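BUG: 3D viewer hangs when loading the predicted structure for this chain

Environment: internal workstation, default settings.
Expected: structure renders.
Actual: progress bar stalls at 90%.

Input used:
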Amino acid sequence: MLMRALYSLLTYAAQPLVRRKLLRRAQAEPLYGEWIPQRFGYYDPAVEGLPRPAEGAQRPPVVWLHAVSLGETRAATVLLARLRDTLPGMRLVLTHGTATGREAGKALLQPGDVQVWQPWDTPAAVGRFLARFQPDVGLLMETEVWPNLVAGCAQRGVPLCLVNARMSDKTYQQSLRLRWLAGPAYRGLYAVWAQSEADAQRLRELGAPVRGVLGNFKFDATPDAALLAQGRAWRASAGRPVLMFASSREGEEQMLLDVLKQKWPLAHAVSAQAAPETIASVSQGGASLPFQLLVVPRHPQRFAEVAQLFVDADYAVSRRSQWGEVPQTADVWVGDSLGEMALYFGIAHAALLGGSFAPLGGQNLIEAAACGVPVFMGPHLFNFAEASTLAAEAGAALRCADLAHAVTEAVALAADPTRLQAMQDAAWGLGAAHRGAAMKTATEVAAVIHKQ
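Structure tokens produced before the viewer hung:
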């Protein structure tokens, strides 16, 4: 209790710094500058509340779901669909911590739902949030456990559950070092449903009430069929294999540039000298890269930066935002749009996994598998160890020592139609073999609500 009081004092004192940080981030991503009072538990009574039921009508269940960023929001999509089937008429309170998460979350709302920022983790902000929305259950997606959020829910009788829960070894070691704070937070949860047995074991050792291992929601998601079909059509017209760098992170694009210049120096020299009207002929003439490169940065605030990085390296670059009916001819395509990953995976023959070549823990490769795209992974996979292991064992992905190794393997795969088809089939099969977690979780959540 004393330790949490000290933590609360620190989070309270940090509020001015949080405001300044949000305003700085808003310069690049304006959404961070909007509705800042929500971050501290202050809401506009006219627009930021749930509708009251008609007189005499039963109050529908109110489900609060916290999806901090884009990945968690995408994973929440399939869970919310199952929850709405299981809890007809439910009202959703959807919270986020990042601009990309909030932007993507708009598509999940139905009439009567509310979307606000996650409350900053002070007792007062958490208390105002819970008093305002009075959820019947709280669902934290994957990893987001905050001490005062947990304590506030326990004090008000709100069952707070960690769903699709994962815990990397790195996070586990950090939590052990802060056990005086993390331990009570994990013990204070009402229920935890983990993605894998390894995640469950780490969570149990921190005192979390793990009630089951249900799998990963992301296997239940289906890619947008129209976007996938459009991508495949563009892939067919590309004239050469398309290699995608999926969800690339800061520093990794420069690593890729170093590999390209080492392996294909002639392609770089030709691109540096080519006039725009000759780029198309260069691309078909054998002096260009042996593949069409598609780079999709993980964070939208880096779209322009990444495009400029390749321009400065003298490659011809075309951004998705500049395309019309077909992609423009260039050495490098940059995917600078949100919500179109199915389109990009549809274009790709193979994908390099961002975040896994720099020591950043990787990104989730399940969406690539759902689109039938083989993945080449670097050595840094600690944030998505379970999914990476499943994909490698299924033959849908290959672990590589470094980015140069991954590019070499991807290019070789594109030149081997039989092996390419085998890895594509394995990718398709991976999702089919691991579906069902969202429906199981929705059933458990409904049971929690009905007990209240």
